Amino acid sequence: MSKEKVTRIGVSLPPDLLAEFDDFMAQKGYATRSKALADLMREALLRHEWEEEDTEVMGAVTIVYDHHTRGLAARLTDIQHDHHDSIIATTHVHIDHDRCMEIILLKGPVKAMRTLGDRLISARGVLHGKTIFVATGNEP
Ligand code: NI
Question: Are residues 43 and 98 in the same domain?
Answer without folding.
Answer: no
